[in-house]
Amino acid sequence: MKEKIINLPNFLSLYRLLTFPFLVWMILTEKANLFAIFLCINLITDILDGLIARVFKLETKFGAKLDSLADIGTYICAFWGIFTFKQAELEESIHLLWPFLVLFILGQMISIVKFRQAPSLHLYASKIGGYVQGIYFFILFAWFHVPWLYFMAIGVGYLSWLEEIIVLLVLNEPRSNVKGIYWVLKERSSRKN
User: Fold this and answer.
1) Dist CA 124 CA 181 (whole Å)
2) Which residues pair with 176 in a beta bridge?
3) Nearest Cα residue to 134 out of 24, 18, 51
4) Which stretches of the chain are DSSP H helices?
5) Domain residue ranges of the chain, discontinuous segments joined by +
6) What is the DSSP letter of 86?
7) What is the spatial distance between Cα 42 and Cα 50, in angstroms, rounded to a whole number?
8) 3-state secondary structure (DSSP) of residue 7
9) Would you state the pLDDT for residue 115?
């Protein structure tokens, strides 16, 4: 059965993907206020696309991949924006972003080398991490730095990226919408029995 890829969640993901060059331009030209507005819109559409897809049963493999690509662009812009516009506010703890970025890049590289595509796993831990990080980014760029939320976003991010790396190493083929390592190992175990 052919997937119906023309739907609102995919349109929202496509919007985020298409705004990536515009966000990069805003960073390069140091348009901090405009960047903050568009990044916050992107963060809201990131929450909405997944929510609408699940509630209205509009989830597709194409949509999962499109969402993942849009997420990558949003992450790149959010972190680049932090280093460009918010570094002074995070000065004492900005070093915690480097391991987060390394884990993020490592997961992308493993998937590209192993499966020739960006990951679109959508693990439960990644969803929780994405929501916490999205809330932090939104508050940071809309208002101010909240230290306890920053540490929570970083901690959840470390754990979710580590799980994603493990899942990518365990899987034999590219998959979308994987719940987590527990379910991957359970499914693998049931196949052996």
Assistant:
1) 10
2) 120
3) 51
4) 8-28, 32-55, 61-81, 97-115, 124-142, 147-170, 181-192
5) 8-192
6) I
7) 13
8) coil
9) 95
Report how far residue 49's alpha carbon sits from residue 11's, in angstroms, rounded to the nearest whole number.
8
Tell me the average pLDDT across 13-31: 96
Q: What is the DSSP letter of 80?
A: H
d(CA 116, CA 144): 39
Quick: pLDDT tens for 64-73.
889 989 999 9
Q: Phi and psi (nearest 5°) for 176?
A: -120, 155
**What percent of the chain has pLDDT above 70?**
99
Structure tokens at 175: 């998959």
Orientation angle between helical segments 32-55 and 124-142, nearest 10 degrees: 150
Distance CA 35, CA 49 (A): 21
Token pair of 148 as six digits: 């306890």
CATH 2.30.110 fits 8-192, yes or no: no
pLDDT in tens, 121-166: 889 999 899 889 999 999 999 999 999 999 999 999 999 999 999 9
- The answer to whether residues 115 and 173 touch, using CB atoms and an 8 Å cutoff, is yes
| Cα–Cα distances in angstroms (integers) from residue 154 to residues 20, 24, 124, in the given order | 23, 23, 16
